Structure formats: C-alpha cells, structure tokens
Amino acid sequence: MVWPRKHLRGNLAPTGKTILNGGGVISLLIILIGFCSLDGQAKFTYFGGMFLYSLAGMVLLATIVHPGASMNRWLTNPVFSWIGRRSYGIYIYQFPIMIFYEAKVQVGAHPFINGFIEVAMILVAAELSYRLVEMPAKNLQLKELVGKLKTRPAGLKRWVRLGATSLLVCVALVGLALPEKAPAKTALQNHLTKANEATAARNKLIAAGKAPKVNVNAKSLKTKYQLSTKQIKALGKLKMTVIGDSVMADAAQNIQELVPDAYVDAQVGRQGSAGPAIIKELKKNGRLAKIVVLNLGTNGPMTTQTVNEILAAVGKGRQIYWINAHLPTKSWEKTVNSQLKKTAKEHSNVHLVDWNAQSKGHASWFAKDRVHMGPEGNVQFTRLLLTTILKNE
Lowest mean pLDDT: which of 8-22, 104-118, 271-285, 362-376? Predict the structure, then answer.
C-alpha cells in the first residue's frame, strides 16, 4: 500500500539507486544467514528472530519491486522463474510429503540424503500439479465452465449427479455444524500419563524419606534385568537425580524399581533449553544428588551455550550420566549424539550412556513411533544406564 509499483520512478539519481541496491543486498544476506542459523529450539527465534527475518524479507521484496533498483534484474534467472511459477504447489505439497515420507523412512541416520529426496519429491509433485491442474484450470474459460454446468444430462446420469452433489453438500454442512471434538488420547499418551502419576507418588515418598527398600534377593529382579545380587544391592544404596523428557518419563518406574531413591523430574515435550532452570530449582530445594542423570535432546538439538549452562548449573562436584538419543525418524539424531559425545570427551565428570548404539537393530524394544520404548525397551534402557553408573561409581 505504501510502495505501489506503478507510482515508483524508474529513473533515480545514482545515490537513490545505490541505497536501494545496498538495502536489497544486505537484506538478501540476512535471509541467507537466517536459512543457516535460525534454530527452531532457540529462544531468539521466537523473541525477535522471526520478526527481524520477516523485516529483511519485506525490504528485499520492496527493492525487487522498485523499477529504479537493479535487484529484480540481478535475481531474474530460469531457476528462480521456474520455482516462482510453482511456488504455490511447493507450499501445498511439502507438508504432506514430509509427513508421509518421514513416517516410513528412518531419516535420522542420513538427514542430508533424505532431505534431498524429500525436496526432489516435492518439486516433482509441484511440477505435475502445475501442468495437470493449475495450468488447465487457469486456461479454462468461465463461459465454457458455466455452459457445462447448465447442461442438463438426461435420465439416470442427471439423478446420479444430483445425488452426488447433494451428498457432498450435506457432508460439508454437517462437518461445519458439528462441534470440534478433542482428539482421543493414544495408548502411548495414556501410558505416559499413568507413568507420570506413579513417578510423582514415588517422588513424594523420597522427599518424606519413606522410599521402599529393594529386595536384593528377589529372583524376579535378577531375571528381569540380568543383574547379580551384588549389583542390585549396590543400586539400592544409590541416590540420584534424573532429569528428562517423555523417554525418561516412560522409563522412570523401571529405574525407581532398582534405585528407590532416584528422584525423577521428567516431562513430555521438554527441550534441552529448559534444563538449566530445572537443575537450579532442584538444587535450591535440596533435590540435586551427587549423581545426575540427563535425558535431554529427544525433542531437538541443543546449542553449545545450552549444554554449557546445563553443566554449569549441575556443578563440578557431581557426576553426570547423559543418555544419548535413539531417534531414527528425526533429522537431528546425529547432531544431538555427536554433541553429547564431544561433551563427554571434554568434561571428566560427564559420562556418555550410549543408548543409541545399544538399541540399534532392536525394533521390538520400541513403540510404533520408534522413539519411546515398550516394556522390553524400558528394561534394556534401565539396565544400560544403571550398569554404566555402577562401572564409574
């Protein structure tokens, strides 16, 4: 509204042209940097980052539209023109293709290759849509369409068309009129809810000093976790604080079965960036033990700053056991696991619990999402964590 192309002058003074082109180049650079640096898990993205990015896009568009600037000429090429004509198709098809592809393919092991395949599929779908749907619809004359609609088919065809049209209208009206129902909880969601309730009850007992003791001679525990009497006895004496996301919420009951004094703070959907504040709160309330177990990274990669803040919040006087991620369906699996491996190498009090390596080739350990564990997976997860702790304590 404030920058109408038809009212902008094409003949500008050199200074005006330089200002426009300079603004266009700078905004383009900001956009390219944003492509590579804006992180979906970073606070900055939501506290100004997206706004600044949109502002840069607006400036770039303004300089491209202006007839006195050179940005339009510089950016005009066959590739951009092809993408521009198919941009709406790309926008429409990218989400369903990514959802269905990533539901069937384990993208975590090779995120770049799978990303390339997804982009190729999106472009092919957009091209087919452009040629078979968009262009024919664009070239369809309104008079021709109205004429087809006015044609009165005789006999059975007429009633079939009328019936089909009436059915579609009724379905649409009913769909619009019905109240929106809350989606039913999945079996996994119900399981996590019950697990959180059980963990909260155990945490209250721990806080009151009434946590039940472990029966070190119980054959069922030895068989279930493949542990010796000596190991179970040692675990029963440990005090630890466990911080994690939904994966840890799922395994908390198994851990507390062997370590009664394991205080667990786990929440569905938790990001690594929430870690420092949680750790500080636990420390303030006297709930941060000398052994700290971390299961953060399932829901997205963490910045180096976040990892350093987590380590600083825990402090050097404690031993940290950080469990890496099994995320075959997520593109950030390698990023998270490489980051944790590097962190363990750089800090003597950080120990890597390599759940990713332990769980490879064991699809039966996991639920349908291939991230959360089933009963056997929780047992193996717990055994790996606790035996790793026993080796170092």
Answer: 104-118
Question: By three-state DSSP, how is residue 296 classified?
Answer: coil
Strand order in the sheet with 291-295: 261-266, 239-244, 291-295, 319-323, 350-353
Q: Cβ atoms within 10 A of the Cβ of 263, count? A: 22
- Calculate mean pLDDT across residues 336-359: 96
CA separation for the pair 363, 338 (Å, rounded): 22
Chain centroid offset of residue 352 CA: 23
Model's pTM, two decimal places?
0.73
Beta carbons within 10 angstroms of residue 32's beta carbon: 11
Nearest to 6 by CA among 71, 63, 67: 67
Q: Where are the alpha helices (DSSP H) in 66-215?
A: 71-75, 78-85, 87-104, 111-129, 135-139, 142-150, 155-177, 187-207
- Helix residue ranges per DSSP H, the chain: 14-37, 43-44, 50-65, 71-75, 78-85, 87-104, 111-129, 135-139, 142-150, 155-177, 187-207, 219-225, 229-236, 246-258, 275-284, 304-314, 333-346, 355-359, 375-392
> What are the pLDDT digits (tens) for 182-230?
778 888 888 888 888 989 999 999 988 888 888 878 888 999 999 999 9
How far apart CA 82 and CA 93 sit, in angstroms, is 16
Cα separation, 141 vs 147, whole angstroms: 10
Tell me the per-residue pLDDT of 45-57, one tens digit each, with 9 for 90 and over: 899 999 999 999 9
DSSP annotation string for 110-122: -HHHHHHHHHHHH
Q: Identify the CA nearest to 322 among candidates 354, 299, 347.
A: 354
CB 388 within 8 A of CB 229: no
